[in-house]
Amino acid sequence: MKYLRKTLALVLLSSVPYVLFSQVKPLDAVLSEYQYPYEVHYLNLKSQNNDLKMAYMDVQPKKSNGKTIMLLHGKNFNGAYWGKTAKDLSDKGFRVIIPDQIGFGKSSKPQSYQFSFSQLAENTKAILDQLRIEKTIVLGHSMGGMVAARFALLYPEKVQKLILENPIGLEDYKTFASYQTIDQAYQAELKNTAETYKNYQLKFYYDNKWKDEYQPWLDLIAGWTLHKDYPQVAWDAALTSDMIYNQPVCYEFKNIKTPTLLIIGTRDRTAIGKDRAPKELQPKMGQYQILGKKTQQEISGSKLVEIENVGHLPHIEVYPEFFNALYEFIK
Fold it and tell me: Is the pTM of this model over 0.90?
């Protein structure tokens, strides 16, 4: 009988949702209770009739090599996940600037805002202007790759080198997936939980292999879903999903003249709107082992480093390989 009770207890425990076992804590819209790896500064930004605060970290090297690098985060992330990258770069002499884009991380979550990659690039430039930084290396991951590409196109004089780490937007999602209204996207965002986020990341990022080092970046976005502020976050998430879908950058890669490195985890299959595409088209979306090579051909003189059997986050999943490729390009 004792054995049966123990077995039943184990079965019941195994059926309890993941969220009860994680360290997920409710987080407000601007992550005020979450400590970033470095001191956070704020730029007061007047934009589209909004008074906004744009958060950023400014990591100073002990011994400067005279170079600055700016790290741009992805859609489901914020500047905090660049902590180790920033430390190692600053140890090499780089000054490291890490913004949270408006609508993300510790930055403001405006509810009336026209999100565009040009606007995000302009906001990002405002940080460099405040810090009187004339030139910088720019590294963008995921959605940050789309911001970085637009930044390089708008302000080529400010960009010394460009690095795109598994950027989304290497294809035009409108040519595959049907349109989703912002209201529909908002309702979908409101349904997110720790479990749905984890399932998404397992499928597209980590090939169904979960490691402890992935947990902090899940807990950050999952914590939002537990707080009363979540509708604010979800609304901006819907607006930025619409931005990604409707504002492709892939047609303009040929116009990028900045020395560029593509770091591509070839197992990645991330593609916006894949669930809305016809079933016969879904397997053709997010084929990074093809898209990386195609993009290298379009960006004149660019270099490609492919990391086999790695998903959407090389700088989390296989950090040494990622950092070696990055440093070899910028040293």
Answer: yes
